[in-house]
Amino acid sequence: MRKNSKSRIFFSFLFVVGLIALVYWLISSQTNLFEEITSDEKRVEAADRNQIQYKLEYKVANDNNKTQIISLNQGPALFEMTHEGLGAFRVELRNPEGSRLVTTILDVTGKFKGIKEIKVPETGAYLLTVRSTGPWDVSYR
User: Fold this and answer.
1) What's the number of domains the chain is made of?
2) Rounded CA separation 43/66 (Å)
3) Whole domain around residue 39: which residue ranges?
4) CATH code, domain carrying 70
5) How would you classify the pairing of strands 75-83 and 124-132?
6) Cα separation of 135 and 42, whole Å?
C-alpha cells in the first residue's frame, strides 16, 4: 500500500505541474492575442486617419460659395481640394460663429488640384467657408 500511495503522490504532483503549465500557457497565449489585437487596432487607427472624413462638393453655375460647419480634432488636418473655375478660389477655416478667421487654407486663381495641411488649434466645431467662381470640391482627413 505504501508503494501505491507514493505513485499516487507522484501522479498527483505531475497532474498539478501539468495544470500549472497549462494555465501559464493560456495566460501567455491570451497576452499575445491582446498584443496582436492592439497592433491590429493601431493599424486600423492609422488607416482611419488617412481616410476622407468629410467631403463637401458644390457644382452650381450661379453661386459656388458655401459655408459648412465641420468638426476637427486638434493637430494636423489634410485638405484635398479641386477647383475647375478660372477665377478666384478661396477656402477658409473660421470660428463657429464665423466672426474670426482661424486660417486661410487656400487662396488661388484658376484651376487647382492639390492637398494642403493645416494645424488645427483645438478640437471643436469650425466653419469651412469656400468662395469660388467655378465647380469645386473639398475633402479633409
Assistant:
1) 2
2) 35
3) 1-51
4) 2.60.120.380
5) unpaired
6) 37
Cell representation of residue 115: 492637398
- Measured CA to CA, the distance from residue 59 to residue 46 in angstroms comes to 32
Do residues 139 and 125 lie in contact, with contact meaning Cβ atoms separated by under 8 Å? no
pLDDT averaged per 10 residues, the chain (length 141): 74 86 72 45 48 52 74 91 90 90 94 93 90 86 80
pLDDT of residue 137: 86
Q: What is the dihedral of CA 119, 123, 124, 125, to 10 degrees?
A: 20
Residues 6+ apart with CB under 8 A from 95: 102, 126, 127
**Does the pTM exceed 0.85?**
no
Residues 31 and 64 in one domain: no
